[in-house]
Design goal:
heterodimer; A: alpha/beta; 14 strands; B: nine-stranded parallel beta sheet; globular
Chain lengths: 399, 265
């Protein structure tokens, strides 16, 4: 089965629209507007221009010689960390905020965990002149003070969410409550390939530039497609962005990497594809972390950007049909990957992306030491320096 | 005619709106829930919406969010709520709507829930995050089990969506009074009342109007216009503010009586 056989908004049994009636017309409106801009050359040109001159695309595909020597294979890093704002998130926010402006919306809301999507949304709103309000769990506001300061500098209003567990899922709940209240003038800029239809498609398509560029770049450098593509998966937007172009090329093996936190067996993890069950959260059906009564369980990861109990529905589908495989990397292994990339290549990766780096030995084992492996380096690690230092001090320094 | 439809008929025959009272099951405890339901029914509630708590209630304001958190902290489960329904049925035949979110139902099993809910004495299902397009897998077994299925309409629903709701309904339709979450302030009740009359005619179904209706004055403002009037957050608040279980029951009794007295307009 290929994804093209799915009805709109569905990835096999996953996806859909599980939201309050109040929001259903807004999702119809968004679907229609998105279809219209998808056929609109002027929109495409405006977005491409911003991606090139504002975001800094295309991002390099860097052959990591020293890392390759250590882990085997030929490792190519897709440098999304070099995007404006330091992560891939901005590819999506520039696209969505431009779309929102076309739709005549005057106010943008967003949820954020670590603050990267919040910063990227605030950035796009500053650029395009729209009001921006960001919902962030109170616990994350405390842990990610520099990103809160950035959002405020960029003109966004930041709401600290105290309900529930006061983290990303609760921020998303609160954003949905705002949206249901202000749906007529407000655009909800979702940060991952999650949420009700059409968001998983919209966000994937805006992020698909990652895989399109990577494919052209590796073809130009090696004359062939890569043997594998690897990315970390929280909600899963950088991974879907990288995978989308390669999905029809079945000779390219796709590897997503989930955060195993303190270890899947401890229950303190963020790995719904590996250790979750199927359910409905935040408007779509997918794998999620839940108890026997269908209550959502809090996720745990050293990386705030992966600390989410759900995952995008298309990943659930790619897993079920066997097109992608999803591995696990613990906090400790991720910190190892973090230090390894710093040491071998002089690149400080985000803790999210460090999960993908740490998984490479496993990928090499599966595809061989002669393989070309493209890894999405989704973000830079400056934001994580305090967290990483704290973690390493607490757990006894480098591995 | 189902027990829910009969409740609307009875209120209409008496020249008033039906009073629908929302309670969050398990708040303050599942042991007290049957007593609270009985008190509300005795004080004049025509229909009880029994909320099943969910960890991520995206359509609810602070009052019901906090009630859900308290209920979950006390270990309330969907199976436990059905147990409370069986206890309620030993004491009253007030029509009961199971009200909540989709995931606990999906986890329990849709077929199984439909059968177990009907067997326990539930009359209808209302799932706030399950629009008609996604509802078939629950609605069909529910109807087979003899339950009513209650869809929602909102101020943003266009004619196409109103028709979808009307087709999905087997008894009444829940009309959300404004764009917002439960317990919101500043609802334009005059406008919501006018809209209820229109909807009732257009859909050919009784309309229960809810969200942001809190006081007897609020009820009076829409009485005779909406076929049913839902009060939820105010009930949850009066339970939460009671210093003892006995006072929670007494508070519910007096608030429901005052609300019921206002349903004639």
């Amino acid at each position: 089965m290929t994804p093209t056989e799915n009805p709109p908004g569905r990835f096999g049994p996953y996806g859909g629209r599980y939201v309050a009636e109040t929001l259903m017309p807004a999702l119809d409106e968004l679907t229609a507007a998105y279809e219209a801009i998808s056929r609109d050359e002027a929109f495409r040109r405006e977005l491409d221009d911003l991606l090139e001159h504002y975001v800094g695309r295309p991002t390099p595909l860097y052959f990591a010689k020293n890392l390759s020597a250590e882990v085997g294979g030929r490792i190519w890093l897709k440098r999304e960390d070099l995007c404006h704002t330091g992560a891939h998130k901005v590819n999506n926010t520039v696209g969505q905020v431009l779309l929102a402006k076309r739709m005549g919306k005057t106010r943008i809301i967003a949820e954020t965990g670590a603050g990267q999507h919040g910063v990227a949304t605030a950035t796009a709103c500053a650029l395009l002149g729209l009001a921006c309000e960001v919902y962030m769990g109170a616990e994350d506001v405390r842990r990610q003070a520099p990103n809160v300061a950035r959002m405020k500098l960029l003109g966004a209003k930041v709401h600290a969410v105290t309900s529930g567990s006061a983290t990303l899922k609760d921020a998303m709940n609160e954003a949905m409550r705002d949206w249901v209240t202000n749906v007529r003038n407000t655009y909800y800029c979702v940060g991952s390939v999650a949420g009700p239809h059409p968001y998983p498609t919209v966000v994937r398509d805006f992020q698909a530039v990652i895989g399109r560029e990577a494919k052209a770049q590796i073809l130009a450098r090696t004359g062939k497609l890569p043997d594998a593509a690897v990315a970390c998966v929280g909600g899963g937007s950088n991974a879907m962005g990288l995978f989308h172009e390669f999905v029809p090329h079945t000779e390219v093996k796709l590897f997503g990497v989930e955060a195993a936190g303190e270890g899947v067996e401890t229950g303190r993890h963020a790995a719904p594809l590996n250790a979750g069950t199927v359910g409905v959260l935040h408007g779509s059906k997918s794998y999620l972390l839940q108890d026997d009564d269908g209550q959502i369980i809090e996720a745990h990861s050293v990386s705030a950007g992966l600390d989410y109990p759900g995952v995008g529905p298309e990943h659930a589908y790619l897993k079920d049909i066997g097109r992608a495989t999803y591995g696990l990397v613990t906090d400790a292994q991720a910190l190892g990957g973090f230090q390894q990339l710093c040491r071998t290549e002089g690149i400080i990766p985000a803790l999210e992306s460090s999960h993908a780096i740490a998984y490479l030995p496993e990928v090499v084992e599966q595809v061989g030491r002669d393989a070309d492996i493209v890894v999405c380096l989704s973000g830079r690690g400056d934001k994580d320096l305090d967290n990483a230092r704290e973690w390493l001090e607490k757990h006894g320094g480098s591995r | 005619m189902s027990r829910l439809s009969q409740a609307f008929e009875k209120a209409r025959a008496e020249g008033r709106s039906a009073l629908v009272i929302y309670l969050c099951a398990g708040d303050p405890s599942l042991e007290l829930t049957p007593e609270l339901v009985v008190a509300a029914a005795e004080a004049g509630a025509d229909i009880i919406e029994l909320g099943v708590p969910f960890s991520d209630p995206t359509a609810d304001g602070l009052a019901i969010q906090r009630a859900s958190e308290r209920a979950l902290a006390r270990g309330t489960t969907l199976a436990g709520v059905l147990g409370a329904v069986r206890k309620i049925r030993e004491k009253t035949d007030v029509p009961l709507v199971q009200f909540g979110y989709y995931n606990p139902i999906l986890r329990y099993g849709e077929e199984r829930l439909a059968k177990d809910a009907a067997a326990a004495g539930v009359d209808g299902l209302l799932v706030v995050d399950l629009p008609p397009e996604e509802a078939a897998s629950l609605r069909e077994p529910a109807i087979r089990a003899g339950l009513d299925f209650v869809p929602l309409v909102a101020p943003t629903s266009d004619d196409r969506r109103l028709a979808l709701a009307s087709e999905a309904a087997t008894s009444f339709v829940y009309s959300v009074s404004m764009t917002g979450v439960t317990g919101s302030a500043g609802v334009d009740l005059a406008d919501a009342g006018r809209r209820s009359v229109e909807l009732s005619q257009k859909l050919g179904r009784p309309i229960a109007l809810g969200f942001g209706i809190k006081t007897p004055e609020d009820v009076r403002a829409v009485a005779g216009k909406a076929d049913g009037i839902v009060v939820g957050s105010a009930i949850v608040d009066t339970i939460a503010s009671a210093p003892s279980p006995a006072e929670a029951v007494a508070n519910v009794r007096s608030l429901v009586a005052a609300l019921a007295a206002a349903t004639k307009g």
